[in-house]
Design brief:
heterodimer, A: 259 residues, Rossmann fold, 10 helices, 9 strands, 23% strand, globular, B: 318 residues, mainly alpha, ABC transporter involved in vitamin B12 uptake, BtuC, 15 helices, 76% helix, 0% strand, ATP hydrolysis activity (chain A), ATP-binding (chain A)
Chain lengths: 259, 318
């Protein structure tokens, strides 16, 4: 059988006394695009961080392709929230993207030129080739997000954990990110992304995991992303949508899968 | 020339190397917003000094430097531990640990009777740069003579070793340090242990602080850690140049301060010399002002003109 890209078993996380995640058991499919959706404070980012061991787990474990992270680290890529770093840092877009090649270069030596070129190619894929030598503080929010995406792509991972990749980006960047997601899905890679925009869940993703401190529902968008499940995830305070949730027909193929 | 080598060279060398070692490491502190660590370390060494004195019963430099280094490293590790366990922000953890260590040092001073023989407060505050002399120098040839170089004051020789250690550490961990300073979360996710690398930085800072502190005092140590990186930060947005410019600023600060301490009183016809450590801080402050004037306008107004996009709430439905 095909191992799930990410499998959580009984995962619980607490900051101080307050439990953020309670006994989440869930498996992301081995390939394809999965959205993690839920209200603020539902533990979406925490789920990604706890899986990667960036915050301590109270209980449970996370398996990647059926193995602990340390055994398959090269196959797993992380895209942190853009706001998690100081963009005034004296580094260029290329230097940041090149960090995605560090695992290939190893410790204690400068990055080989060939690896730097791979990072440059990753920048080019997200339309940032012309900004390679630009200091990151001089980029717009959307451009900064693309640099982060390029760094993740440079890892050439099979599973990407993305923390709000679409947060605060312009329309052009949103399209660029969607194209990258489609490319990754076509290649049989898996993406698990925290996503805030309920209106685009069905358009961008095929699987969804609804979270509210605990797992509310998970499965294909067509059958799981329903008003009833959303109401449960948001505790009855279903946010007003500026357009109705598109009800995809069960079994309908998303556009990129047909390509 | 011989007179310069005998009376000024060892002090000048110590001043420049102290500023270089601290200034280079200060970049990493500045970029991770931990510049006050030097302040913490310089207070935290007191129990180590007393311990070194109590164990050996003398004020010999080496045991006290070793004691101070042990205390500084212990304080640095404790700060890291307190931050992790108590989830305190860096400034609060440093404040708790260094005031605690300083108080412990005062208590130990009374208990061991070190106070009676006068653990020199002036020396702790301003260093003893003027006391560093090299009587073994007989001329320029002494600079290449191992036997004569071995006669340099122990403070100068310790600083040379520490500077070599700092430069080697920065060179070896160049890309790793940049990665961890910029994005520790991503670093951890790709297996570049940010905690271990941060600890290496903490230990290096502690060692450099103590070595420099002995030569130039606890006040200048803070200036040497903070001023060169701050000057460089005003002048460049390039990571490599940040370190290069801070090294140049450190050189100018060490050499210029030492020169000013001798030159300014002579110029004004004063009867007394000025404190070299103090003049270094003055030179650094003047350079910082000059760098601010020379810095591109963008850097100065940066915070006032944050891109409007950054101020918008994230485009989402909540």
């Amino acid at each position: 059988m095909i191992e799930p890209a990410l499998e959580l078993r009984n995962l619980s996380v607490a900051y101080r006394e307050a439990a953020v995640l309670r006994r989440v058991s869930w498996a992301a499919p081995a390939s394809g695009l999965t959205a993690i959706v839920g209200p603020n404070g539902a533990g979406k980012s925490t789920l990604l961080k706890a899986s990667l061991g960036l915050v301590p787990r109270l209980t449970g474990e996370a398996l990647f392709f059926g193995q602990p992270l340390s055994a398959v680290r090269r196959r797993v890529g992380y895209l942190p929230q853009r706001a998690s770093v100081d963009w005034e840092f004296p580094a260029t877009a290329l230097q940041v993207a090149a960090m995605g090649r560090y695992p290939r270069a190893g410790w204690f030596r400068p990055l080989p030129r060939a690896e730097l070129e791979r990072a440059r190619a990753a920048l080019a894929e997200v339309g940032m080739a012309d900004f390679a030598e630009r200091q990151i503080g001089q980029l717009s929010g959307g451009q900064q997000q693309r640099v982060f995406l390029a760094r993740a792509l440079a890892l050439e991972a099979d599973l990407y954990l993305m923390d709000e990749p679409f947060a605060g980006v312009d329309a052009a960047t949103e399209r660029a990110i969607v194209e990258v997601l489609h490319r990754l899905a076509r290649e049989g890679r898996a993406v698990v992304a925290v996503h805030h925009d309920l209106a685009t869940v069905a358009e961008y993703f095929t699987e969804v995991c609804l979270l509210n401190g605990e797992l509310v529902a998970a499965g294909p968008v067509a059958t799981t992303f329903t008003p009833e499940n959303l109401a449960r995830a948001y505790g009855g305070r279903l946010p007003m949508l500026d357009r109705p949730v598109p009800r995809t027909e069960p079994g309908a193929e998303p556009a990129w899968a047909a390509a | 020339m011989t007179l310069f080598l005998q009376l000024d060279f060892a002090a000048l060398l110590a001043a420049v190397m102290a500023c270089l070692a601290c200034g280079l490491l200060g970049n990493l502190l500045l970029l991770t917003r931990q510049s006050l660590l030097g302040d913490a370390v310089s207070h935290a060494v007191l129990p180590g000094l007393v311990l070194g004195f109590a164990v050996t019963g003398t004020r010999a430099t080496l045991p006290m430097v070793l004691g101070a280094m042990v205390a500084a490293v212990a304080a640095a590790l404790l700060i890291a531990l307190v931050r992790r366990l108590a989830r305190l922000e860096a400034g609060a953890a440093m404040g708790v640990v260094f005031s605690g260590f300083f108080a412990l040092g005062l208590v130990m001073m009374e208990l061991t009777g070190a106070r009676a023989v006068d653990l020199d407060v002036d020396c702790v505050l301003y260093g003893q740069l003027e006391a560093l002399i090299w009587p073994a120098a007989t001329g320029p040839a002494s600079l290449l003579d191992p036997a004569a170089l071995a006669e340099l004051p122990v403070e100068t020789r310790i600083l040379a070793g520490v500077l070599a250690l700092v430069v080697a550490g920065l060179a070896l961990l160049w890309k790793e340090l940049r990665l961890v300073a910029f994005d520790p979360g991503f670093a951890a996710s790709i297996g570049f242990a940010p905690r271990r690398i941060s600890l290496v930085v903490l230990v290096l800072v502690s060692v450099a602080c103590v070595a420099a502190f002995w030569a130039v005092g606890s006040i200048l140590v803070i200036a040497a850690l903070v001023a060169p990186p701050a000057i460089a930060r005003l002048l460049t947005d390039d990571y490599r140049r940040q370190f290069l410019f801070s090294a140049l600023a450190a050189l100018a600060m060490g050499g210029g301060g030492h020169g000013a301490a001798i030159g300014v009183p002579a110029l004004l016809g004063l009867e007394f010399g000025l404190n070299a450590a103090g003049m270094m801080a003055v030179v650094a402050a003047l350079m910082l002002a000059a760098a601010w004037t020379a810095s591109p306008l963008r850097r100065r107004v940066n915070s006032a003109t944050a891109s409007p996009r950054d101020l918008q709430p994230t485009a989402s439905i909540r």
